[in-house]
Amino acid sequence: MRRVAGRFVISQDERGTFRFALVANNGQTLAVGEGYPSKAACVNGIETVRRNAPEAAIDDQAPAAL
C-alpha cells in the first residue's frame, strides 16, 4: 500500500477568499497557498503545485549565513 505524503486542506478566510495548506501526516503545515477568489481557483492552485513540485528546483536568493 502506498503511503500518503500528506493532505491539502482548503479553508475560507475572513475576507471570503479560499486558501490551501499542505499538511504533513504529523499535522505540521508545510506550505500555504495565496488567497483565491473561488474554491475552483484554489483547487486549480493545488493541482498546479502537484504538477510542478516534484521537479521544482531550489532558487536560493537569501544572503549567505554570517
UniProtKB/TrEMBL annotation:
Protein name: YegP family protein
Stored SUPFAM superfamilies: YegP-like (SSF160113)
Regions that span the bilayer: none
Occurrences of domain DUF1508 (ranges): 13-60
Domain of life where this protein originates: Bacteria
Pfam families assigned: DUF1508
